[in-house]
Each structure stands twice: as C-alpha cells, then as structure tokens.
Amino acid sequence: MAIEVKSLAEARGRVLKLREQIEYHSEKYYVHDAPEITDAEYDTLVRALLDLETRFPELQTPDSPTQRVGGPVLEGFRKVTHEIPMLSLGNAYSAEDMREFHRRVKDMAGDDVTYVCELKIDGLAVSLRYENGVLIRGATRGDGEIGEDITQNMRTIRNVPLRLREPVSVEVRGEAYMPKSAFARLNAQREEAGLQLFANPRNAAAGSLRQLDPKIAASRRLSVFIYTLADAGGKELESHSDSLAYVEWLGLPVNKDIASFSNIEDVISYIDSWAEKRKELPYATDGMVVKVDNLSLQKQLGFTAKSPRWAIAYKFAAEQAETIVREIELTVGRTGAVTPTAVFDPVFLAGTTVTRASLHNEDYIRDKDIRVGDTVVVQKAGDIIPEVVRSLPDLRMGEEIPFEMPKDCPVCRQPLVRLPEEAAWRCVNSQCAALVRESIIHFASRDAMNIDGLGEQWVAQLLEAELISDVADLYRLQASQLVKLERMGEKSASNLVSSIEGSKANSLERLLFGLGIRLVGEKAAKLLASAFGSMDRLMNASQEELTAIREIGPKMAESLIAYFQMPTNVELIRRLAEYGVNMTYLQSQDARNLADSELFGKTVVLTGSLESMDRKQASDFIEQLGGKVTGSVSKSTNVVVAGEKAGSKLEKARAIVESGQNPDLQIFDEDEFLRLLQRHGIAGMSGN
To answer: Is 120 a catalytic residue?
Structure first.
C-alpha cells in the first residue's frame, strides 16, 4: 500500500525514517542474528521505501537499502590498486609449526605477547572502502597489489552496511563466504540443470562475486565477516581486539568466535577444540588465524616479502574416511538426467553418518576409476556434501566390477540420449514414470505453483491409484476421489483440492518454472513472463526475440523453442488453460505488449546525465520495454540516449552513423526518450 505524502519535504522525512528502520532491522537480522520483526514486516518496509523512491527519484541515493540489488550488467571488472597491500598469510599445519611461529615472534618482540585467535572462513578475501561513512568501493584481493572492482556485487550482500554509524573514512578487509545451506541449494539447482557443480563454498563465493550481473550475485545469498581494519581513518587504537570492537560498533559484521591468549599452548589447545566444533557451524572454515594483538608489536615485527610476521594461518586437516562401494544406483530426475550414486558402507564424517554420494555422471566415474567393490576415500565437500575423492586400486582383490552406463533408462527402458557438450545421459521419454513423478513434484513445489500439501507421498499415491498421469490432471481431481487414498481424510482432501484450485491464479512465471523446461530456472521464468506477458506470445517467440532479453542465452532459447515445438507439451498447456490455469503475467506494469515497443530487442547505450531520472531508473525502463542496456557504443548499437554533458560515446555514435557503418542507429535526447516512455505508459515521469 502506497504511503500518502503531501510534499517533497514530507516524502524526504518518511524516506529517512524508513531507511533508519530498515538499516536497524537489517543489522539485527544479518549481523546479530537476532531479528525483531518478521520477514513479511521487513519486506513491507522495503516496499514502502521503494514506492517513495520511485515516486520521488530525487530522493534515491547510493546508500539506500533499495540499491542492494540492481544495476546494469557489467562488461568487465575494472582494476583496483590497493594502497595498502592485501598480503597472504604463512601457513601452519601442526602444533610444532605453531610453536616455531611463537619462537620467531618472541625473538623479535619479547615474551610479553598476546595472541588473538579467529576462525579462518573459507571464502574470498575482499576489501571495503567507506568515505564519510558511505560504501564507495568493494574489491577482490587479486594478487595483493591489484584487485578487481566488485562494488555492485558487494552491495547485494545483506550484512554489508551501505552506510556506517559514523561518517568516517575507513578501509576494512574481510572474507565473503557462502553459507552451507546456500551452497547446498545452489549445487542442487546446478546439478538439476546439468551445470558443473562448485567444488566447495569458497569456489562458489568467488564465482558469485565475479558475476557481471549483480542480480546473480544477489541470488547466491552471500555473507561477510570483517577481520581487519586496514585504514582506521586517523582513529587511535592500541590493539587488534580494539579495532575489531570499533569495526563492529560501526555496524560491520565481525565473527563472534574470537579468543585471546598469552600462552602459545593455550592457543594450540583452542585450535584443537575447534577441529570438531567447526563442523556444527553454518559456514565452512578451513583453519584458524592467529595474530599478535598489540598493534605496536605488529608494526615492530613487520613483513616478509609475502606475508606479515605477526600472523599465521593454521590449516585444519580435511576429515576423510575409507569405505567400500557396494552398489552404484541410478536415479532419473525431472529433466531426464540419469545420475549415478555410490552406495557404500556407513562412515562418520563431519558430524553425520554417510552412506551415499553422488557420482554425477559417467565421465566422473571413469576419470576417478570407481568400481563396485572398490575401497574408496570419501569426504564432505565444504563439510556439507558427501563426495568420493578417489579409489584405492592397490587394495583391489580382482572381483571389483567396472561401471558401465546402461543404454536404456532404468525406469522405462527407453533409449538414453547424451547430447553434444553434455556429460549427462538423459531419458527423453516424456511418459517415463520417473520423469512424470518428478515433474509433478516440481510443479507443486513452493517456488513453482506452490500447491500446499501435495508432497512426494501424495504424488506417488495419486499416480499409483491412476488418478493423475500429468500435471494437468491435478486440476480435475475431486475430494470424493482423494478420500479413498490411504491416510487421506475428508478435511485433508478438501484442503488439497482448495490448494490446487488456488494455484490457478498464480502469475505466469510460476507456471513457466513449474513446467520444468530445461535450463529455465525461477529467475529466467520471471524474465520471460515479464517480457512477453502471456504464454501464447512466449510460445510463438523467435530465437532472436528470446535472446534479445538480458540473461536469455542461445542455449536457453533453443531449449524453449524445442519445448514448445513438441505436440505433447502444447497439448499439456492447452489442457491447463482449459482447466482455468492463468496464462498471463500478473504484474500489470511490466505485462505490456513488449514486442510492439520501439526498444524491444534493441541494444541501448546511455551517456551523459538525465535530469528526470538517474541511470539505473533509465536502464530499468528500457528493460521493461524489452531493450538491452550496454556500456559501450559499437556498430551493433541500435539506440543511444544522450543526456547533458554526453561525451565520447555520443561522438562515436555520430561517427558510426555518418560513416555508414550503421545508418539506422538512433540518437535520442532526453525529451525524445521521455516521450517514447510515455507512449508506452511508463508511470512516474517528471519530464515534459
């Protein structure tokens, strides 16, 4: 619901108040893990702020909570020179290594030394620069001297404050990481889509922060711990402990599991105590960082060419176990991918008993030479996902059985297919019982059609009772049929029918995702639904129209076209529509006839400054009309929007037109751009 305001001054006051509330609750939730309001209440505050900033664009600022997700897709990362180098740490692997480190420190600094022990987070080292309390730059470590500017992606991390509590100018260093739950979710999504899996949370975090599209980084649910105040902005501090306390007071996230000791044996005991406890943490750790606490002593100890003499990283040993593979099972997913899974004798790893591990595909098994009956080494990737590290051929007795991928589906016995450039074998029989079952479970899932109460158990029973054979059959079920199922009472039957009926009103993107079209995930479904507005328009879209949408690449476009060309799929969609399932995108502002807009499928470059809106708003409006915003002018550019003080990009565009390289390239000034937007009903314009 929109907030009623009578003047710009009143709107400014409401915006400032909302930002203060959102920042407070963000810190409570993301930094202190102590939320005081529900997610729904938090979302209401954000929506109210976004509404006011949309109506009064002059109130939007870079440090607003609404700016965490967004911004144009980058063409690349610019280089950043670290004024204070980000050096790596020396490593220790044993108690004796730690004692030797202490001896070196003691020889230079004397006996009176206090150490600070911090968990070493398994992620990506980053640097954050704040000027007058506002985040102005985020950068990767790179080679220690030169990193990459990832400011847009760092803004998407919820526990990174965009504004500090004090208007100070400081630089902090920390570790961006992916929580275990987010890592498991991401890899499950990638495996389902047939994409390469991330080996561990560290690789996942690094890959996420190097995405050119900030929206992808935002979807990965990263977090950060700050571990060093590199530039205190002139503030006098005596110890590393004091600096961390100051950093935390400013509103930055600091790990709570930090301890200080004046005896190296106590440090070693503390490290040992975390060897097992770390497995219970919601994030991955690969060691313990030990630092001299006194900042004057740190300065006295100095640096080697590669690392500080006052700190060292103790690396935990990876927990592994040997076991015997008894069987390699095959399962068929909803996309038809046939996945082999090793079933082995139980082993205890990272706090749980493990008996199974995915072997992913035929190539994985061949490369690691894994056979039924083999003794293998297993571990948990990132202390989360069980994996077979290697086989031990020296222990073979001659009775081990090499694995061969069957030529037929293990469920329906129809031939499997392996597409070029793919590692997975797939069942392409749409009537395969495994595909049907998994497709219905996915269709009913929370992120798809959200049919409450329709879980795996009920899907299996409905199929077994032959009450359904595909997702469309769900919409003709009656309570009188359901009560005949085992453990299905009248109330449960009535509730399920109501839930199925309610799902008919979902917006198009949920249906698209629910159909399980290969390579089309939740985000792509939203983009497609927003761009085309209706199922009918999407079904008739060309390859060019599809790939004109940002993030829809050639492979996804081919997958969509292939799906809609199959008569069985067309018939399924027809039946769903006949049963009353909504086939349109319900967000009316975006669900316009994009294919008829002047910008649909066009490449647009913004240059100069616009008086009526900022660049982000202009980019959003262009994308709403099906255009694609890029950062540089070339022969393939279709439109250039030139504001005040447009420079070299405008000159290059004129040169391209005059030289005949692209005589159709259009150049709009701000008034022409505003008139174009207004012709298509874009709301909130303040220009003439």
So the answer is: yes
